[in-house]
Amino acid sequence: MGSENRKFTRFYYRMKSELSVNGCIYKIEELINLSIGGCLLPTSITANTGDKCLLKIMLGDNDEAPVVSVEGKIVRIDDITSAIVFTKIDPESLDHLHSIAMYNASDPKKVEQEIKKHPGLF
Fold it and tell me: Most buried of 12, 47, 88, 114 (most Cβ within 10 A)?
């Protein structure tokens, strides 16, 4: 998908995450990129385009640290990456995701405009 079709700015985010899809759990050391609407993972997974998934992004190194938990759908898989579009998120996780985007994006004002235009995932 070209950047002209994207609704949300992508940014680098270097936290661990966990992807659950089709009964398999994939531990991810860091995301290639993240946005309010989806992410790109540095791993090929055993799944099909359209499969539902659950992504948990750890916001710290201990069990008490907050977690962004978001439901999604696999939109692309190749030999080295997997792309997910987010479809459902709870309000607390969405607040965390908004904060992550504002802090990590190269243009926070643009991200703020995107959040105002699309207050949920879409």
Answer: 114
